[in-house]
Prior knowledge:
Layout: H1 3-9, H2 15-23, E1 27-29, E2 32-33, E3 48-50, E4 53-54, E5 62-67, E6 97-98, E7 107-113, H3 116-123, E8 131-137, H4 143-151, E9 165-168, E10 173-178, H5 185-191, E11 197-205, E12 208-209, E13 218-220, H6 223-230
Bound molecules: uracil.
Uracil binds next to helix 5.
Amino acid sequence: MRLDKFFSEQKILSRTQCSKCVKNGEIAVNGVTVKKADVKIDESSDVITLNGERVFYKKYVYILVNKPIGVVSATEDAADKTVIDLLPTELKKYDLFPCGRLDKDTTGLVVLTNDGASAHAALSPKRHVEKEYSFKTADAYSDADVSAIERGITLKDGYTTKSCRIVRLNDNEGRIILTEGKYHEIKRLFGARGNKIIALRRIRFGDIVLGDIAEGAWRYMTEEEEKSFKSARQ
Ligand code: URA
């Protein structure tokens, strides 16, 4: 890859800025000050420094946030705070987007990334990546409700949901594990049984668990989590 592309792709320096830095002797590759901005580098093994500080190659970024109520799963919104607004400004340059949507009144785990191919695979029902939610219903739900929802329900729009699993905690609370993510799916599943979801939190996405990320907080995925997230592509 060209040195100026290395910097511009990661939105650290534009090509013009890179040329200026090269002229000023501010960029080195493997300890040697470079003379030309179009010099070829190996981004995976060369040590690139800008004003003496190492610049690591990071094309894709993977972040986990715990979405609070009232925040929308979008990159921009005229009225509401978005999941991107939960991040510090230095992360805004990566053009991150939420991998799947949670309703405004749903809380919990949202993956933010700029890796479109992995996000697409992780959301595809064909890849069977599990998404687990804890829920609370307005009225008690029955074993018959559990069987019907687990088998799949034909919703008002004619769509029949894929089979899923429910773990009952008590008459009004439980966990539900889906491998697809249709619009308002859990609310519509319980709605079809004459009940109402009054609290919903996503607690797991594939192998990645919400754990102790506080509401409104974020963290980078661990290496293991990144690997697991990307594995949906295979
Ligand atoms: N199902 C819903 O109804 N809402 C969500 O936010 C996620 C799944």
